[in-house]
Amino acid sequence: MELSKIITSIKKEHQEIISVFFVGCGASKAELYPAKYFLEANAKKLRTSLYTSNEFLYATPVSVDESSIVITCSLGGSTPETVAASKKAMELGAKVIAITHNANSALAKNAHYVVVHGFEANYAAKLEKMTNVLGLAAEILYQYEGYEHYEDMMDGMAKIYGLIEKSVATVLPSAKAFAESHKDEPVIYVMSSGATQEVAYAFSICLLMEMQWMNSGSFHDGEFFHGPFEIVEKDVPFILLMNDGKTRELDSRALTFLHRFNAKTTLIDAKDFGLGSVIKSSVVDYFNPMLITAVLRVYAEQLAILRDHPLTKRRYMWKLEY
Amino acid sequence: MELSKIITSIKKEHQEIISVFFVGCGASKAELYPAKYFLEANAKKLRTSLYTSNEFLYATPVSVDESSIVITCSLGGSTPETVAASKKAMELGAKVIAITHNANSALAKNAHYVVVHGFEANYAAKLEKMTNVLGLAAEILYQYEGYEHYEDMMDGMAKIYGLIEKSVATVLPSAKAFAESHKDEPVIYVMSSGATQEVAYAFSICLLMEMQWMNSGSFHDGEFFHGPFEIVEKDVPFILLMNDGKTRELDSRALTFLHRFNAKTTLIDAKDFGLGSVIKSSVVDYFNPMLITAVLRVYAEQLAILRDHPLTKRRYMWKLEY
Questions:
Q1: Does the beta-carbon distance from A316 to B209 stay under 8 Å?
Q2: pLDDT, tens only, B247-267
Q3: B157 occurs within a structural domain
Q4: How far is A266 from chain B (nearest CA, A)?
Q5: What is d(CA B108, CA B91) in angstroms, rounded to the nearest whole number?
Q6: Domain coverage including residue A223
């Protein structure tokens, strides 16, 4: 079902919606973040929260009821905590929308509506999950409160996939250089701001820690100057994800500091790929995470090749019960 | 002014409050988290968000207006981003409450109400900031929506300081052992759940990275199994902050995994200090962060001693403009 029709259908039954919850784990939680950030920034009345699934399940907010929409997310649709959270939200009377790659999954069966996204086809397909969730948030805001930049958002949704494919086609040389220079680093830090904050988080906990067994930490670059920057010395590796939009000033301040003290800085800058010439400035902030995630995927793939450590290699996942 | 009177005074002028924003940087941002977590879990209508100050300033949510309360926080009251954010919130018509140790600071001058907290006297005094912010959140909920466990919360506010002092008096031996065994670690991970999530974050970015120049990362222990746990091997150091309350199950699952694979695990468990016998179970979740922060402070002090690296030593802060 089209995203707009899902929300229209919910509104027919539930004319008052107070809260919108986003619920997932790991990369799927991080991919919900741009939508939560968008609603938090632009809604005047709608409440919104993002929970890791087990926290939603064990410490369920009292506001989860028939006045809520709960959006749950899992790539394979089998993450047990997320399936359980989705089921619990339904039991409490919330309208539940599941986002998954697997239309026949347990998650899909424990939701009122299902959005099935691509994954394998190309880099753009891997960003359908994050983009569709943002689209749902925009529909909710538009239909329940009104949103003056709705048309710009729809225009962005239509154009971002093309820009992603065009961008990733250019990054192989810089990705190879990154992999060569970082393959033996004892620790790599990742930071960003705005809607891209959890892209930094996901690259740190999933691509580096989970898929490469490399040490890593991540934080908001507005927080950098209130703690983490004391770790900076010559050659300490930082990846800075730079946004086109309102928080660029924060990213830029962090970049200046990293350069000043000769940190080993890798910059992924949305402006280098022309994000602002494709996406309208009224909504550009919310499309940085899709573009930057796709570019980072190429970096991770090259790192995996040079380290002889496939991105699919695990110590525990798929191997044990835990 | 008493916390309850501040909210009563705001309510006289602004009978409808839609949003409550918490704004700060670094440790002061983390100390706002329990209050934000409490409101998010218990409010049915009030919106709530936590922002690092510069993000609030540069990407100000559209909902900041006369229907908002903004709570800003800075220990010394001079953090420029937080002062600017506080000022902007006032300009937009919000009611602003500043929490600071310095009654004459720039932050105190750019707020409608000021809560001055202790710091030097003892460990309990260092937790007045976090506890007062939680108290404000409870008052807001009670006066604007009603809160059935308000009396239990007030009872907890009265008792937590005594428990903190009693607890820290017992932890020196374990803090010394921690310092001895961790002083040369190349990286230390910290995790927790629930209201304590950002205690893990603050210990990681402030105590370890900022004050000890040690590498570190932190994450929610509900997220541990969706990425970070692949870094676990024998002797990899993890600090697990274990809650008494609804999310204990999540902490416990992480602990089982760490023990199973012989990670170098440091456990700070609120139950070991009898939190649940002092604080009513209806509100116990929200007092874990105060108790655990105080205990961790002793750990950090012992680490600083054994590493000959005072907690006040900096490379950049207080030394440069940045």
A1: no
A2: 999 999 999 999 999 999 999
A3: no
A4: 18
A5: 15
A6: 172-306
